Task: structure prediction
Amino acid sequence: AQKITQTQPGMFVQEKEAVTLDCTYDTSDPSYGLFWYKQPSSGEMIFLIYQGSYDQQNATEGRYSLNFQKARKSANLVISASQLGDSAMYFCAGGTSYGKLTFGQGTILTVHP
Amino acid sequence: DAGVIQSPRHEVTEMGQEVTLRCKPISGHDYLFWYRQTMMRGLELLIYFNNNVPIDDSGMPEDRFSAKMPNASFSTLKIQPSEPRDSAVYFCASSTSWEGSYEQYFGPGTRLTVT
Result:
């Protein structure tokens, strides 16, 4: 079984600044994937970025990057150049196969103008 | 691609009534998932299917809940009888095993209110 922990219930950032959202995971499986999803106030779940446990480099997708530190079991999401539209709930999730994903409790990000 | 389609988007029903939620996964995806999201419990996996076969239904709360996937392009989640504590947003998601990563693509959700 996998456990995902997001310790920041809420985060604030100034527009155009970078922000890091924390995620730690706990699994005994050698092969796993880590995901970040965004849920804006409209309610849909939007896939942002994926990191596989065997990937040599940190994943990046546009302004999103994943700071993957295997020894610390952390998979933090970094959003560069924050925009007002980035204000949303962000979920970290982990899974060890094509099946189950375990989601964290989420972090609410508020971007101030 | 149209993405994952769910219907209805909103459902208001009275306690004791049967509720059926519907989902059409992305074409070609062989995994389908049903989730429930509440403020108290967060996002919970209820059940998932692979190639139309239920693989894990350990998250289904009780016998009042049932899910089917009669073909690759359609799934239902049924609650009978419904109770006020079933009020939540229900998401359907799909994914494919044909790609290196296995991110799940979510539908817009069905907001269920049981009065």
In short: Chain A is about 0% helix and 50% strand. Chain A touches chain B through 20 residues (CB under 8 Å). Chain A has a mean pLDDT of 93. The two ends of chain A are 41 Å apart (CA to CA).
